[in-house]
Structure formats: structure tokens, C-alpha cells
Amino acid sequence: MPDTDPPRPSTANSSSDSYDNSSSTAGRVAQNSVFEHFARAGFVVSGIVHLIIGYIAIRLALGGGGSTADQSGALAELAGKPGGAIALWVGTVAFTIMGLWRLAEAALGSSSTPDADSTTAEVIDRVKAFALAVVYFAFAFSTFGFARGSGKSSGGQSAGITTRLMQSGVGTAALVAGALIIVAIGGYHVYKGVSQNFLEDLEGTTGRLVQWLGTVGYIAKGLAIAAVGVLLILAVSQSEPNKATGLDGAFKTLGAQPYGVALLAVAGLGIITYGLYSFAMALYTKM
């Protein structure tokens, strides 16, 4: 007797179709011309911020004072330049849109990598997209503060938060966990630079210069991020929350070491290199 039951839909195909629909939705969001232009402008603003941070680090190496060598110091310097306020407002919008772009990828999947090999790979990509969304929204909030004239030192805020959290065991454990995550993020940046898998995020013919900028830039930024995490661990272990001053503290600690002037100058040049690579990302990043 022939089988009269209707054929069951393939689970694999249904899952694939669902993912394709989600990724195409993400693609429509990301590839909206206005949305895309502002998102790419975010990479430009990020590049400018990294150039200023690197410049401040080199200035510290040469004995100059002034701004802190971190994002807040860079934004403060930018705010004081002609046209700086306009750039900060553009940056606020651009970082917000970059956050929304990554949030769309976290919810709907990436339109630039629709052929994920497995569910695990898709989940990892979405978690990374969500983490980047949080970072970009934080950048937007910080830039907004300086655009309206109420920006604060991120180093001081970091030390204050560390002080409050160290007053309890749970808070201390959270700080250690957070520090280890920061070190891991720094390590991932170094790996991304050494392996050059950042090229997978780009489209078109980029050339050897972009590859070199990305390699050096990711390694330099990764080492700087890891140093921030290490300083946080030291601050907790030594009960000295004032050591948890973020990137500026990491640079100043580096400068206090033997051959610190040279090391700090090299670190500053590395951050500048990442800033230059950010301009390449504005042109070549898959959207």
C-alpha cells in the first residue's frame, strides 16, 4: 500500500531557510545607504581617536604632559580643536549606528557570512556581534558626553567603580572575572593580528599595506587591552583600586619601566597604526 503521509519538511532546510531570511534582513538593514555611510563614518571617527591616543602616548614618552592617553583624553583633545564639537556629534551618531548594526547582526545573523558552517559558529558570531554592539554603544555614550561638554575621565571613573566593587566579595570576584575577560579580549586581538584573519572581515582587493596595518595594529591594540586587564588584576590583588585607571594607567606603567620611553613610543606608534587601519576598515569592511 503506498505511503499517503505528506513528506515532512527537512529540518536542515528549514533551519537554513530561517537563517537565510534572517541574514537577508540583516543585509537590508546594514546596506541601507544612509545607515551604511554613518556606520562607515564610525570607523573614521574611531581611527581619529586612536591617532590622538597614540600621539598622546608618544607625547608622554617625550616628557610632555596634558591629556590622558585613553579614549576620554583623545575625545577631550578633539573637543578643543576647531570643528571638534561637530566631529563629536557626528561620532555620536556614527557609533550609535555601528552599535545598531552589530545589534541587528546579533539578533538576525550576519549578512556578510551567511554560509556559517554550523550552529555553533553562528552562535559565536552572534555573541561577538552583541559584544561589539555594547562596545560601540559605550563609545557613543562617552562621545555624547564630550560633545555636550560634560565628558569625564574614563580612568577616574574606572578607579571609582573598582573602589566600590572591592568593598564586597562578590564585587571583587566580578572584578577578577572582568579582568580575565579583558585579558582574553586582548589576546584575541593579538591572535587576530598574527593570524591575519581580520582579512575575512574585509571585501575587495586590499593590498599589502592594509594587511600590514591590520597585523601591526591588532597586535598593538591587543597588547594594550591585555595590559589594562593585568593592571586591574594587580589593583584587586594589592587592594589598590587607584591602579585600575584603564589604558592611560597602562601606558604610564609601561613608561615607568626600564627603557620605558622607547616602549611607550613604540606602543603609541602601534595604536596610531591601528588608527590608520580603521580608515581602511571604513572602506573595506563587509556590511
Task: Give an overview in words.
- This protein has 287 residues and is mainly α.
- The protein has one domain (17-284).
- The chain contains ten helices and no strands.
- It has helices at 11-30, 33-61, 71-79, 84-108, 119-147, 154-165, 169-195, 207-237, 246-255, 260-284.
- Helix 2 packs across helix 3 (71-79) and helix 8 crosses helix 10 (260-284).
- The longest helix has 31 residues, at 207-237.
- The radius of gyration is 21 Å and the shape is globular.
How do the strands and helices of this protein lay out in sequence?
Blueprint: H1 11-30, H2 33-61, H3 71-79, H4 84-108, H5 119-147, H6 154-165, H7 169-195, H8 207-237, H9 246-255, H10 260-284
Helix pairs in contact: 1-4, 2-3, 2-4, 2-10, 3-4, 3-5, 4-5, 6-9, 7-8, 8-9, 8-10, 9-10
Summarize the structure.
By secondary structure, the protein is mainly α. It has helices at residues 11-30, 33-61, 71-79, 84-108, 119-147, 154-165, 169-195, 207-237, 246-255, 260-284.
